[in-house]
Amino acid sequence: MGAVVKELLKFKLLDLSPYIKPAEERPPEALKVYDVNGQYMADIETPIHFYEPVRPDLIRRAYLSALSARFQPKGVYEGAGKEHSCESFGVGLGIARIPRYKGHLWPRGCFAPNTRGGRRAHPPRPEKKLHEEINWKEKNLAIRSAIAATAYKSWVAARGHMVEKVPSLPLVVSGDAEKIAKAKEAKKLFEVLGLWPDVERAAEGVKIRAGKGKMRGRRYKEPKSVLVVVSELDVPLISAVRNFPGVDVVPVNHLNMLVLAPGGVPGRLTLWTATAVERLKGLFL
Fold first, then answer.
1. Nearest Cα to 153, choosing from 179, 177, 171?
2. What is the rounded CA–CA span in Å between residue 116 and residue 174?
3. For a disulfide at 43, which of 30, 219, 235, 252, Cβ 3.0-4.6 Å?
4. Contact 174, 274 (CB under 8 A)
């Protein structure tokens, strides 16, 4: 059968072009850097992280590991439902043989599961292991893979981000952007870089949560929008953009799977500062 296909391809009688997926372009060797007005100003060397193959399976595993690390162990008090003086009346009385309170002719049941005030049959145990552990080399590989996914428009668009007006990916802005301290100036930066339509998409997608979570401090569900990566933890840009709908801002040395691939899905729309890209070169290797 394979020989027949080869002969058909040789004489161009079999067209496989609709079934061949074109290979994605590699990130450029030099990244374009834009100033705060959206104008091209220089090139910087592309960190090796952006050339890592995108591994959705590994990214998903590392995301679940990072998510489960935040779970808090929970359990019940060991003596709950078992601190009463109770005893079964035995057989021959026509009633269930469960333990009962002492001191009354027909006292209610206690101690046993499925009785009022009794212990739970299978309570949650605080010693249960909740964290899905992962090797540190595997975690760093997953982080590099998630960083590489931010460089491909196909991966970013597949997450639902608006990338039509974004000039290039990875999107890098000059280090002067970290000095922006006003939300008005940060909005102007997002507009000239083509990121503001994605923030508006997130704002339109904010919905009230269904269920009792509304009463437990998580009333609204908000889509994820732009991720802003800065160089330090105390730059003014953090306070300028942190209240934009769906926008997260994080120092480059604090990058993790929860912000790079929310929900375990790679390809988040990311804005890098030039100083953050320089610091990235020595991290997660």
1. 171
2. 66
3. 30
4. yes
Q: What is the pLDDT of residues 211-236, one digit of tens each?
A: 999 999 999 999 999 999 999 999 99
173-225 pLDDT, tens per residue?
Answer: 999 999 999 999 999 999 999 999 999 999 999 999 999 999 999 999 999 99
Total residue length of the chain: 285
Structure-block tokens of residue 232 = 């330090």
- Would you tell me how many other CB atoms lie within 10 Å of the CB of residue 89? 15
Tokens of 258: 């929860």
Judged against a pLDDT cut of 60, whether residue 242 lies above it is answered with yes
| Cα–Cα distance measured from residue 12 to residue 269, given in angstroms and rounded to the nearest whole number | 41
**Segments in 11-163 forming alpha helices (H):** 56-68, 136-149, 153-158
Among 37, 118, 129, 122, smallest CA distance to 84 is for: 118
Of 120, 9, 49, residue with least CA distance to 285: 49
Residues 133 and 234: their CA atoms lie apart, in Å, by 31
How does pLDDT run across 31-44, given as a tens digit for each residue?
A: 999 999 999 999 99
Predicted confidence at residue 2, as pLDDT, reads: 58
pLDDT confidence of residue 24: 59
Query: Whole-angstrom Cα distance, residue 234 to residue 247?
Result: 17
Q: Which residues of 164-196 are buried (b: 16+ CB within 10 A; e: fewer)?
A: eebebbbbbbbbebbebeeeebbbbbbebbbbb
For the chain, percent of residues with pLDDT exceeding 90 = 73
CA distances for 156 relative to 67, 118, 245, angstroms:
22, 53, 18
133: DSSP letter? -
| Residue 202 token pair | 């997130």
Rounded alpha-carbon distances, angstroms, from residue 173 to 51, 60, 224? 20, 29, 21
Distance CA 133, CA 280 (A): 25
